[in-house]
Design goal:
41% helix, Rossmann fold, 11 helices, eight-stranded mixed sheet, 267 residues, alpha/beta
Length: 267
């Protein structure tokens, strides 16, 4: 989910693309990044860890949980490796639908994303604020068998919804519509690990209105999204602590990662 369809305005999806090493960003995002780094100098490493935990979760769900259908909501610009590449490396028959409301994201996905022939990788316009429309969209209906489990990725998207009531209602409705045995993957920014002085500096920066929407939530607030669900071990933990890859040491500490991750199974 992106904040604006005005391609000349700051776009948090494009800025995130810059943070994780992509090339699909403009001078507007680069200037914002420079300012953010004056307050959060480890932001780029934190973003990369947030992306890395998503890839680990996808691999785990496909290899260990039998998931073959993945809905990536608020997908942002295509990146390497992308979700379908990680999933199809394990099972080429995996099917992925990327969702975003940014027209440039749509162009890039439709022009560059190539699935293995045994599976599918498609794009659908939409966002988390219109959950019902996600499941009535042409690509979701065509690509997925909604009688079988689907893993939904909510990666670095919920913290773009500042209204708590809207955020919780959207996830609640999503849970209602998903088939039994589906999974939610949540990667969400937090200020829990920051010293109070840094928290206040970030809040002052956000209050200027020049750097996009952002609602950091506490661990307890993030746990509400998966309340009543079966959490996959190790539960709701820092992005760098969720099933780390011994071959790829994290680039950020728990404090610097500023992020919680969770994978939860629906009954």
């Amino acid at each position: 989910m992106s904040e604006s369809r005005d391609v000349s305005a700051l776009n948090t999806s494009r800025r995130y693309n810059e943070w994780v090493g992509g090339k699909d960003h403009t001078s507007v995002e680069r200037e914002s990044t420079k300012t953010v780094l004056t307050v959060l100098p480890n932001m780029l490493a934190a973003a990369k860890e947030g992306r890395a935990v998503v890839m680990r979760a996808v691999g785990d769900l496909v290899a260990e949980c039998g998931i073959r259908q993945i809905l990536d909501v608020g997908a942002g610009q295509p990146m390497k490796p992308n979700v379908h590449e990680v999933a199809q490396r394990i099972d080429p028959s995996c099917r992925v639908v990327y969702v975003d409301n940014d027209p440039l994201v749509a162009v890039h996905h439709r022009g560059t994303v190539m699935s293995r022939p045994e599976g599918r990788a498609e794009f659908q316009d939409g966002d988390l604020l219109n959950v019902d429309e996600l499941f009535t969209g042409d690509q979701v209906k065509e690509v997925f068998d909604l009688g079988r489990p689907v893993a939904v990725l909510l990666a670095s998207v919920l913290h773009l919804i500042e209204d708590d009531d809207v955020a919780y209602a959207s996830v609640r409705r999503l849970r209602e519509l998903l088939p039994p045995g589906s999974y939610l993957v949540i990667v969400h920014g937090t200020f829990d690990t920051l010293p109070e002085e840094t928290r206040q500096a970030v809040r002052r920066l956000l209050a200027t209105g020049k750097h996009g929407s952002y609602k950091a939530r506490s661990r307890a607030e993030i746990e509400r999204f998966v309340e009543g669900l079966e959490l996959r071990e190790p539960g709701v933990v820092s992005s760098v602590e969720w099933r780390p890859d011994p071959a790829k040491p994290p680039q950020a500490s728990v404090a610097d990662a500023m992020c919680y991750a969770a994978v939860a199974k629906l009954p």
